[in-house]
Predict the structure.
Amino acid sequence: MRRHDFSYELPPELIAQTPLAERSASRMLVLAVPSGALADSAVSELPAYLAAGDLVVFNDTRVVAARLAGHKPTGGQVEIFLERALAGNEALAQVSPGKGVREGLAIATAGGEARVLERCADLWRIALPEDALDFFERWGAVPLPPYIDRAPQPGDRERYQSVFARERGAVAAPTASLHFDAPLLAALAARGVECAFVTLHVGAGTFQPVRVDDLASHSMHAERAAVSRATAEALARTRARGGRVLAVGTTVVRALEAGALAVTNSTLATKDHRTALTLAMPDHRTALTLAMPDRRTAMALAPWSGETQLFITPGFRFQVCDALLTNFHLPESTLLMLVCAFAGREAVLGAYRHAIAARYRFFSYGDAMLLTSRGA
């Protein structure tokens, strides 16, 4: 497929610049899969679309204050944008503007000197006065996306963060999670819906445009992800009772599906016209078998952690996720391509046209879209 297959026109005034006063007050466009039927709803109504025994999976990554102002010895202003913390006091970061940036350059910041060590592809390895995450949390600013055309405000420290964020390391929020607050989580629990967590530290590459027209030539940025044993067990329980898995955000989809693909020593067997796929971890731990009644298959997902460059485009076979709650994404972005892979390109782009006509709010601080279970 080609990049322009995922293009659409968005009026700039529909790009949300600030969050709503109440997290779960956002609108929610419901796209039924595979029928393509649309319904206008609200995030607060999400429990009505779920049943007792379903599982909702969140990303518990915590956004770091990743933007840091500095200046070169010549006086030129630069911005250091954290990509990821490394061992000791080192980090990988973008330094812009890039003119004059070189190995050995000392950049003065409010927290002390940051020294450029070496070029690493399109990033720089830098040394900082203290642990990178601590340093940026102390001296950095909230890394609002480039399409939010204002300076960070004090309230962004709390609102550009999910209520269950706990694992530091992201430089962009998993924005579908921003819609959840205590009342909504309580309503899910009262409905009999179980919750679980993965961790995927969203990198700055999530905002990088796809620069090639042929998607087969695009290389995804690497992001760190982990699926815990507790989450693998929650998935197993859900499948055993016939429940569905709702991924909250594209980052959760990538973590779960990357975990399923990363597990090695696959065996494929067929019995009584049902397919079984056994995936065992390299250390030969027993994998957890997950019955998938809607697609008449079974798969196993063991605890997993590592880096993923999984690029999900139409034609991808989803093994774990049955439904998806996500925000509206930029034209021609890898995130929009993932959503189209889940529900079909024409159906998704048709839903986007509806959302634009109905004046939904787009992107990080915007409204949500629920793609219902493919097995429903």
